[in-house]
Amino acid sequence: MDAVFSSFDEYLAAFGLTIGLFVVSGIASLVWGTILAVLRVGPVSVLNKAAAVYVALFRNTPLLMIFIFVFIAMPVLGYNFKFVEGFEIAGWNVSAFFFRACLALTLYTSAFVCEAMRSGVNAVPLGQAEAGRAIGFTFAQSMSLVILPQAARAVIPPMTSVLIALAKNTSVAAAFGLAEATATMRGFTNDNADQRIGIFLAFAIGYIVVVEVISLSSYLVERKVKVAR
Amino acid sequence: MRFIRTKAVVATAGLALALAACGDAGDDGGEAPEVEVADNAADEFDDGTAMKEFAESGEITIGVKYDQPGIGFKGATDDMPVGFDPEIGKILAADLGIAPEDITWKETISDNREPFLQEGEVDLVIASYSITDERRQVVGQAGPYYVTGQQLLVAADSDIESLEDVAGTEVCSVTGSTSLENIKAEGAKPRGFDTYSECVDQVLSGTVDAMTTDGAILLGYAAENPDELKVVVEPFSEERYGVGYSLDKPEMCEWIVDTLTEAQEEGTWDDAFAATLGQSGVETPEPPAMDECPAA
After folding, report:
1. CA B84 – CA B98 distance, rounded (Å)
2. Start and end of every Solute-binding protein family 3/N-terminal domain (chain B) (predicted)?
3. B11-148+240-280 and B150-232 agree in CATH topology
4. Are B176 and A187 within 8 A, CB to CB?
5. What is the ipTM for the molecules in this complex?
6. Which of A61, A166, B5, B210 is deepest in the core (most CB within 10 A)?
7. A197 shares contact with chain B (CB less than 8 Å)
């Protein structure tokens, strides 16, 4: 593991990028996936079907193929997202590569978020929605004030699994121009063929720590918001 | 994967056309040179050596790359890999009395070369395998049989002319490769991809500014797309390609060095070069002198 300890800043930077990919595409997936779930249970038939097609399409396609589409096919078609490099957020420029990786991860993960969220909506007793309608709530109001808050509490364990899968799926970006943990590990082993096992362990432990932090925080949230039955 | 496979087929067809074109021009290069397979090779070697075993069994497994035109390339529909590395493999196998069609080729990528040798998955690795001290701790590397250096492949209308121009640009290569580390040291943003062909696509579509790796590989890609791509910058590193073997069979080093030295003297090395890397227009260089083998 000497190779890792002697350039520990590179190790940390690699996991920093992994966590960056996870956080940005995690938030984006939760938002977009929830919107999709609302569309799927909503009253508008055409949106309903569109969301169902989206889920079927992206949930059934391997993540690697979505990456290939975003990184190799889309630039050929003229969509390379270079324009995001013009924006500056708090003195930090988003690279087009980071944007594309988050896009691919979000397209994929939001399909799973949608289905987890929908199972949560189904878990909310029908009477809750009827009660909301009885006091004159619109669909948007009863969704945002009554149903989604209860659904979100019910889906914490399956949503955690979706997020853990996302954290590990960020490693696909290693093959698409991002120096995240897996790509950096391959750089390390290439330079230090004699320390292969130590390097592998160091990076495996890094992933375990990241995933443990996610599952621990989900456990704490779950305990806090658990519905008393 | 449909997309990639189609591209591979197109690339292969392109290569085949390029080779056919050379034939039309009355140039007999492009055809794989014939290697003379040794008769009764088994008698040449001492009992108990790895070479004796290979010669007696008539089988050898060689790891080469499949995605580096000129060096080691195999299209989806090809039976055998072509390139300078497979030619070197044929020369070595011929000395053991093994004909080219009896060699078992196995694709190796940069990451699995040491494990493949250590586990006996392959007997030799000839896969643009640069000799380094760290690698020599875990596997044997005999050679070098070829010396090249890192260069840049850019779009034909690119502004990048010297190594100073890469600072701040995005440059791709294969994930985890030494080339990527070297270009990072020059101030470029490194972009690692799984294969060289994906990296070339990034240059062609304009998502990255340049691709970097050994000049020999870049020339192969530039030759496939001469209107859109060009190779710039003098080589700025030294990569010494060696033949990898298992440290369990240290006797192989002497044999590899002797066989390759003989090939250099007899001109089969030159023929192999002219038929492969030479196709991209580079002159056949002076063959490099081999390192001494470690005392077994």
Report:
1. 18
2. 59-280
3. yes
4. yes
5. 0.80
6. B210
7. no
